[in-house]
Amino acid sequence: MSAGTEQERAVVAAVPDGLFIGGEWRPAAAGGVFSVEDPSLARELRTVADADADDAAAAAAAAADAQESWAATAPRERSEILRRGYELLIERREELALLMTLEMGKPLAEARGEVMYAAEFFRWFAEEAVRIEGGYQASPDGKDRFVVMKRPVGPVLLITPWNFPLAMGTRKIGPAIAAGCTMIIKPAEQTPLSMLKLAEILTEAGLPAGVLNVLTTSRPGEVVEPLMRGGVIRKLSFTGSTAVGRLLIEQSAEQVLRVSLELGGNAPFIVFDDADLDKAVEGAMAAKMRNIGEACTAANRMYVHASVADEFAERLAARMDALTVGRGTDGADVGPLIDEAGRTKVDELVADAVQRGAKVLTGGRHAEGEGYFYAPTVMTGVSPDSALMSQEIFGPVAPILTFIDEDEVIAAANDTEYGLVSYLFTENLHRAFRVSEKLDTGMIGLNKGVVSNPAAPFGGVKASGLGREGGRVGIDEFLETRYLAMPLG
Ligand code: NAD
């Protein structure tokens, strides 16, 4: 049990116990549990049920049983459930934010922001649930009529990462409910508590038994693979690393599953000599430090025009230096990294960059505390062959490189297997459009360090994924198109 305050212990203890299958909370079939840690204390918070393949089979049966009746519910009814879910998330914001901070480490202010962001997906898809459109058209020879309809794709498997424990869930659950799909969700083993709480809230919002099933497990491969191959699941929606995404694409081949994948990123952050440096530094803080740098959208490589690079680096280093590092519950600006492995990876990437000639302006070391803290870091003179140029840093480290020529920086920005998001700072409108059209990413932040919004289509190209979440297209990922052909007489 948690070593924190009474309030912290109460919030953790209030998370339902067990797996959520067919509307019931039950222990894992084999009785196992696994430990969830508070990364700011490197200590156990509590244990949760450890599902195996038998539990996966039970969840698949529950999702299959509920699919027909759930697909037949009125869109308005599904919309109202999502709307109530939205309201309950807002109402419980403080409790959910504290729980998220305890299991993931992010500062409370950011956790509150994530609860709002997560809730917005329910509000958005409550509105989309009643706007699923079809069509009626004449065949080219005029003899037939085509009726085009959308229907739910069927039971879906949703897999989420640890970095946004709530929002990555609602971004998938929202459109699945709106479309009329039943689902099994498997949260990351580091952060299952927020998802268990969300299942309780959705039940209170009126979601029928079997529509949402939650499997927590320390052995994701053993639970997921039989679901992928089992014949019940019709679609996978996955957010996580590109390596696991690739494995799941392979597994999806057997049952020819539809797949949506939100994978890794390696975002370039480009500052031209005509940029407003106030906006660029502000944008860099947001693009780098949101979520302690543990975001797929995090600025991973900063390319700054040589004429403004020194000033930009100094100003960024001063801002980073002023940040407080500590427990997210104690009002710190920067929380711990998720675990020791995450911090070791940051250590290695920084050491490699330094060894290749980078200069550390601030940070470059662990920060004090029992947890996995790392000091906000700015490095200049980073060599393009450093490992962090091709790998996600997933920590509070800003590497700065310089450039002179527009074509040169576009080529450098695109020189990665990833293509999630890029950031571009310039006050020249022509340059903004010219460069935007050449950047090979699914999203672009123009003079802005955060692009995520439930009303916009989030997603990447190349090894950053397939499909889009949110926006008008978000629900399409959970719908099939069917048409009926008939002669007029
Ligand atoms: P991860 O791939 O290790 O884990 C993601 C999920 O996959 C977890 O639920 C995990 O349990 C599960 N998983 C792990 N091995 C599996 C297997 N063999 N079979 C089935 N499922 C398995 O990633 P992570 O470390 O939790 O998250 C960080 C990654 O997620 C980063 O690469 C980040 O860029 C990416 N991410 C992408 C987006 C996006 O929208 N593009 C958003 C957030 C995070």
UniProtKB/TrEMBL annotation:
Catalytic residues identified in the record: E262
Its EC number(s): 1.2.1.-
Keyword annotations: Oxidoreductase
UniProt keyword Oxidoreductase present: yes
GO terms, molecular function: oxidoreductase activity
First and last residue of the signal peptide: none
Domain Aldehyde dehydrogenase per the UniProt entry, residue ranges: 25-482
Top-tier EC class: oxidoreductase
Top-level taxonomic group: Bacteria
Gene3D superfamilies referenced in this protein's UniProt entry, alphabetically: Aldehyde Dehydrogenase, Chain A, domain 1, Aldehyde Dehydrogenase, Chain A, domain 2
Family the UniProt entry places it in: Belongs to the aldehyde dehydrogenase family.
Protein name listed in UniProt: NAD-dependent succinate-semialdehyde dehydrogenase
Source organism: Streptomyces sp. 900116325
